[in-house]
């Protein structure tokens, strides 16, 4: 049985924080895991900026509700789910992802939790576990699942390396330079064929 593990932002939906930055005009919120490899450092930066500018949960949720999946993402996901089990492994948060998951047909999602105060301020976050994408792929392999993995950023590299077959999708050049030798796709049809049919190199 093949299990396909996908990143969410940059693969199925636009980068949420880029949308928030565009909505608020705060350029410092444009940083993502494509720019800062340490996720804890990145989230502490985001929380600090949001607190300084008084950005609350309702504003972020309004941005997310208007985003929707990327063109072709729903068909891509439906194709994969027609032939294999699919798990979305994301460093987003359940409070953010719900409207997007509904638009994608409610796929299985593993991600993290936010701490939100009564007034809507985001006061902190709780990781399910550190490096959960890599750990999830490794756990699936111990259960004798064949794993395919695809993502676009530094925080996806671990699961791509751990999977039986892995590739990048619409990744920036700096990520591809740091992880050479992995396939890179910009087309959903080609990506689906790889995820469903690729075998490890001998």
Task: Give a structural overview.
The chain has 202 residues and is of the alpha/beta class. It folds into two domains: 2-13 and 70-113 and 127-197, Rossmann fold (3-Layer(aba) Sandwich); 17-66, Alpha-Beta Complex (thrh gene product, domain 2). The protein contains nine helices and seven strands; from the N terminus they run βααααβαββαβαβαβα. It has helices spanning 16-24, 39-53, 57-67, 73-81, 94-103, 132-142, 157-162, 173-178, 188-197, and strands spanning 2-6, 85-93, 108-116, 122-126, 146-151, 165-169, 184-185. Strands 4-3-2-1-5-6-7 form a seven-stranded mixed sheet, sandwiched between helices. The longest helix has 15 residues, at 39-53.
Write the layout of secondary structure elements.
Blueprint: E1 2-6, H1 16-24, H2 39-53, H3 57-67, H4 73-81, E2 85-93, H5 94-103, E3 108-116, E4 122-126, H6 132-142, E5 146-151, H7 157-162, E6 165-169, H8 173-178, E7 184-185, H9 188-197
Parallel strand pairs: 1-2, 1-5, 2-3, 5-6, 6-7
Antiparallel strand pairs: 3-4
Helix pairs in contact: 1-3, 3-5, 4-9
Summary?
With 202 residues, the chain is α/β, with parallel strands linked by helices. The protein has helices spanning 16-24, 39-53, 57-67, 73-81, 94-103, 132-142, 157-162, 173-178, 188-197, and strands at 2-6, 85-93, 108-116, 122-126, 146-151, 165-169, 184-185. Strands 4-3-2-1-5-6-7 form a 7-stranded mixed β-sheet, with helices on both faces.
